[in-house]
Amino acid sequence: MRGVLPYVLFALTLVVCAGAVVAEIQRRALDPPHSTLTADILFIALVVGGVGLLVARARPRNVVGWIFLISGLEWAVWGTLNDQVRAVLLDGAPDVLGAALLLEWVGRWSWVPVVMPAVLFAPMFFPDGRLLSPRWWPLPVAGLASALATTAGIAFSPGDYPSSGVPGLANPFGIDAPWVGVLSTAGFATMVAAVAAPQ
């Protein structure tokens, strides 16, 4: 199963990226002047996923390859999600799912779980898939906690946070409380410290 799974994960990344391209072609056929394809994000998805495939195939016990494979798939899903949200909210495309506003909210905070696997956890286990020593186990735990805190802080921060490029939309789930800002700031600071620690 470990021999097949890397190909399955990368194939899913390819399918999601291909779906985003097909949707873009259809949008241009209907309204040529507008383009919402985040080609840079899809390119990152393919590169990160491709590196993960090479590592996981050659060293299936090395967790770094699996981190990159999962991260590549997350990048592809995130980029496609942002494309659809921008097409509906910026260009007036039909909201087929009826969930554009909900997906825009997801786009506000989902960059954290998308970016963090490769940026935060891969350096901790590089290059052989193991921590520097068993005493380093608090580091990934702190990294995970900080990522969760940052995600929650952004997700429930009130006001306008147009990460998907859609201006003027207030957070429908925003909470006007001091702990929200503290959670986001503390989480991000801890996350930066966790990234720098293995260096």
Structural features:
199 residues; mainly alpha
Number of E strands? 0
Q: Number of folding domains?
A: 1
Q: Using the CA coordinates, give the radius of gyration.
A: 18 Å
Residue runs with pLDDT of under 50 for 5 or more positions: none
Query: Distance between the terminal alpha carbons, to the nearest Å?
Result: 34 Å
Question: Topology, pairings included?
Answer:
Layout (H helix, E strand, L loop, with lengths): L4 H26 L8 H20 L4 H27 L10 H10 L1 H15 L12 H18 L22 H19 L3
Please describe what this structure looks like.
The protein is mostly helical. It has one domain. The protein contains seven helices and no strands. It has helices spanning 5-30, 39-58, 63-89, 100-109, 111-125, 138-155, 178-196. Helix 1 (5-30) runs antiparallel to helix 2, helix 3 (63-89) runs antiparallel to helix 5 and helix 5 runs parallel beside helix 7. The longest helix has 27 residues, at 63-89. It is flat and about 55 Å long. The protein starts with a helix and ends with a helix. The model has no long low-confidence stretch (mean pLDDT 81).
Short description:
This protein is mainly α and 199 residues long. It is 68% helix and 0% strand.
